[in-house]
Amino acid sequence: YGCAMNFSDSEIVASILSSEGYSSTKVMEESDLILVNTCSIREKAEYNVRQRLRIFEKNKKKGALVGVLGCMAERLKKKFLEEERLVDMVVGPDAYRDLPNLISGAEEGEKGVNVFLSKEETYADIAPMRLDTNGISGFISIMRGCDNMCSFCVVPFTRGRERSRNAFTVVAEARDMVDQGYKEVTLLGQNVDSYKWENPENGEKVSFAQLLVMVAEVSPLLRVRFSTSHPKDITDDVLYAIRDHHNICNYIHLPVQSGNSRILDLMNRTYDREWYMGKVDRIYEVIPDCAISTDIITGFCTETEEEHKDTLSIVEYSNYSMIYSFFYSERPGTLAAKKYEDDILLEIKKKRLSEVIEVYSKVAFEVNQKDIGQTFEVLVEGISKKSDQELKGRNSQNKMIIFPKKGGVAAGDYVNVKVTEASRATLRGICL
Ligand code: SAH
Ligand code: SF4
Ligand code: F3S
User: Fold this and answer.
1) Which of 102, 159, 294, 389 has the fewest beta carbons closer than 10 A?
2) Are 88 and 106 in contact (CB under 8 A)?
3) What is the phi-psi region of residue 17: left when phi exceeds 0, alpha when psi lies from -120 to 50, beta otherwise?
4) Is the pLDDT score of 81 beyond 90?
5) 75 CA from centroid of ligand 2 (Å)
6) Hey, whose CA ends up nearest to atom 4 of ligand 2?
7) Is the Cβ atom of 153 under 6 angstroms away from ligand 3?
């Protein structure tokens, strides 16, 4: 459950457990140990995890151990372990090395808890066990935690302080992926642009822009993506790295959250509307064919109809290729929960959400029309969902392109595709 970072953590957990002799199974009935990696970002995410845990009660009755990992650990440890007795273990994001120990405790009937948040842990030395992979595209976590205090957000509380991983282990992991045949890697962090690592041996500093280039230089055939960029931290150096390296993708996920300066201030995002627009301008100026996507929250505390319209207009202004939008969900313990009243009615939040999606659909449709007639390099991911006579893949801008099969073209290949049709969500074309 949750974001890509959580998924990447599951790969670290799988690696830790496999070196202890555990193996994974796809058959639920066979499992002796069930670990659920949880997310706390919105109320809905928590609800889903609880539903899942109820299903596992059956397995628990038959003797399987059930553990909760990840972002819900800290907040709900007491409830899960003591009050609801749903699980045997609760393990926070920085305590995965302790899992084998906690599991053996649980086998003896002790309830295992470790939700300690570390200032240093980056799992730098652990080679993730790739899960649920197509063998083409994978993730590397380059940092953990977050030091921004966006008022709506639980992440700083669930994942602790920001820390960056040793740059050389990042590069080594990318090299390893290339050796295994991977063609695409996404560097992950809550705020990748504030990545900074200092080599303790010589005091040399590595910035995010430098790390991007180091990874891009591993192989020209390895596409490099990254997520997430905080508008306040993305630098021109990062834009130049994208512009100057063919295999660093022309795509930036740049969450705006709101288009209104007063709301952005309440959200503690540390930029205002004009500043964000300036950033968007700068990106298109340096990388004219860059695609930008965003996250938006509707109905944040005290948001007026007028202020919501500012969000609609910034969607139009920014020409987003993709948006991920959510209605505001108050999270216990956050600054917003303490300071502001969650005063926008759910139906208003939802109405605003649907208006955001409506404007975005129009914008994305128009943006995509400009791709018709253009040829893009596409990394083939496999057979398209709808027809086994068609292949799918993405271009550098992270847009999905569908095209008829062509002899000799297989998943993992780079091909040139000329776009002939465009809708809001997909492009169609022919393989040249
Ligand atoms: N680090 C990233 C975002 C991580 S959370 C950033 O700074 O942008 C992913 C997205 O979930 C956020 O961008 C936000 O749009 C959404 N989100 C976070 N907390 C939320 C909340 N309390 N209610 C609704 N959406 C939320
Ligand atoms: Fe949350 Fe803000 Fe950190 Fe993103 S930057 S994880 S929204 S606190
Ligand atoms: Fe990710 Fe959810 Fe945690 S979005 S960082 S898993 S709260």
Assistant:
1) 389
2) yes
3) alpha
4) no
5) 18
6) 190
7) no
pLDDT digits (tens, 9 = 90+) for 317-334: 999 999 999 999 999 999
Task: Give the three-state DSSP class for 407.
Answer: coil
- Could you tell me the two tokens for 398? 């992270």
Distance 2 CA to ligand 3 centre (A): 5
- What letter does residue 386 receive in the DSSP assignment? S
Q: pTM value?
A: 0.95
The number of the ligand nearest the C-alpha atom of 152 reads 1
CA distance 252 to 296: 15
Q: Which of 218, 313, 230 is nearest to 273 (CA)?
A: 313
> pLDDT per residue over 410-430, tens digit each?
999 999 999 999 999 899 999
Question: Which positions ≥6 away from 250 have C-beta within 8 Å?
Answer: 242, 287, 289, 290, 291, 396, 397
Rounded CA separation 426/63 (Å): 47
Q: Which two three-digit tokens encode residue 305?
A: 């109809």
Please report the pLDDT score of residue 144 as a whole number: 97
What is the residue with the minimal CA distance to atom 11 of ligand 1?
Answer: 41
